[in-house]
Model the fold of this input.
Amino acid sequence: MKENLFGVSKKWTYGLMALCVLGIVIGSFYDYQISEALANRTDIGSWFAWYGQTASYMFPAIGGVCIYKGLKGDRYESAGRAGMIVGFIASLLFCNDQGATEIRAAFGYVPGESSPLLSLAGLLFWIAIILVCMFVAWKVLDERNRKKLIMAGLMMITVTALSFWLKDWLKLVGSRPRYKYLITLDDPHAAFRNWWEMIPYLAGKEDGLMSWPSGHMLKASVLLMLPVLSDVSKKSSPKRNLVCWFIAIAYIMLFAYNRIHMTNHFLSDVSWGTLIQISVMTLLYRAMIIPAEDEV
Done:
């Protein structure tokens, strides 16, 4: 069998990596100028920044369904059931962590004034979305290669969790000022630093110094699991996998533009965030899914 990555020819993965490297090289010379030209904070951009990651947060729950369906009827079925519960809880925690305040406000909840039931409504909103995604996944997943299905599920959970951990750790190591932080100073160029001039652990809890790498891009790049999901679904085909790949890439590029547009990151920040995530995902795919490719 011809080796692929993420359900598509590996050339597409390496091509994306090359594009990220190109972004880093260009950003190394023109980071500030690009941000200066594209910066224009908007309400829709802010909304997309908050909720655009939600698609990635569904993968732990979907991964749990993959694990359970792969073990259903086996002597380890109870472990599969536990995996599905863990995946559901992880997705709920990720969604609630990023969009809790906004969703509660959308339901009219005002802390200290509104009924707690309105706050509960926000939580039920996320639960409903996650359950719908799990139901759809249950209907479309293919059980013919159970080992591959299980490995795909484990990877979905692992990658999403790692994106949160890597985001927090790398930002402390990087400690590079954001563009929106720089433009509040009298002389923004005076405080600008290229990505290789980062000062480790300078940021502390100062969000304005956490520009590198883009944590949003680390999390948004989890969407590259979409062609993997297609590959373990019924009636999967190389063409459908490739369509899912390009949907994921288009989404990721839109997200990258939004991070620069909203003054949160430089071009090299979003390029590094994507490159780091896809590199980690490639290693996990090779270790977890490729060994299961030939099992029927």
